[in-house]
Amino acid sequence: MSGLLHGPTAEPAAATRRRRVAVVGVALSDCGRVDGPTPHALHAQAARRALADSGLDRRVIDGFASAGLGTLAPIEVAEYLGLRPTWVDSTSVGGSTWEVMAAHAADAIAAGHANAVLLVYGSTARADIKARRRTSNLSFGARGPLQFEVPYGHTLISKYAMAARRHMHEYGTTLEQLAEVAVQTRANAAANPDAMFRDPLTVYEVLSGEMIADPFTKLHCCIRSDGGCAVLLAAEDYVPDTAKAPVWILGSGTSVSHTTMSEWEDFTVSPAAVSGRLAFERAGLTPADVDLAEIYDAFTYMTLVTLEDLGFCGKGEGGAFVEKGRLLRGGQLPVNTDGGGLSACHPGMRGLFLLVEAVRQLRGEAGPNRQVTKPDGHLPEVALASGTGGWFCSSGTVILGRG
Known about the structure:
nine-stranded mixed beta sheet; alpha/beta; 16% strand
């Protein structure tokens, strides 16, 4: 796989003004059940496909961002791809990593520190467990502040479950409302040929499943899959040479909250309350302007509380908001239109997949029975991607638009 990219041919532009930044290429690697390729191979496959999608010459790429693989990420992955970038990012904040990286990359390009930045991810999390190359992880470790929680069995899943229970206590959110998130996400996955699970779900099936961490049964939790994807961002200077219409970065925001649960002031408020506010302010938009949202959904509660914190409904109103099919492709606010981490794919850190799906929807490339349209029949104009990392420890929100 060496020799994919051999470094930039142009020096980064001098920053006399802030340049507009566009997503010019997106792609998935093989996803779902992928037993043969290594994680490095999935990175390369996604990178090649995203580059082909952009129509740009590989030599324009002078920036690279990656996390989750390699001893010196992203240097190891860049070497594998044949890259010699002059701008790099290895930020690792869990599932929100890729929205945070996209914000960093957009700022670097706008300032003239890079011309085109490739974000890429790949994982064989499912295949590795099946082949006994690794075991499932119940926590992120027992060092530092985590030493005060791990001995008491406070696993990653239980932290989300405890937050969900607090929301139920504070606002009367019901198990049926949380289950609706899984049901509607599966309905969105049904039209996605790349989704790992496509059979219809009912609220009863979600509620009657195997208990994982109260109140989460198995179907309240994300799936475990293999897969990768890549996103290429570039300065406006390169847009005339791209193969497809650009999708512009309109605004972004990032935020961190806590590591130790005892330091989290309010279990019913995620860091998306800050990252979302910042992204909307910087984009000059409001939640009412958004046509579709791609939201990190390792658990059903994540979707519900993030919708509240991004301002799509009031605090405590998430349960009622997710009812009546509002999250479906044809609903009031289509959410996780590819089937999300609950049904489509979740190979470890899913944040980059949110950006790929948002871009495809804005381009009108989602395909039959899956493409979101506005009430007037036109393509969506504004999409939001919001990633969550850790156990509501971090958040990155990116707003994208066609105009």
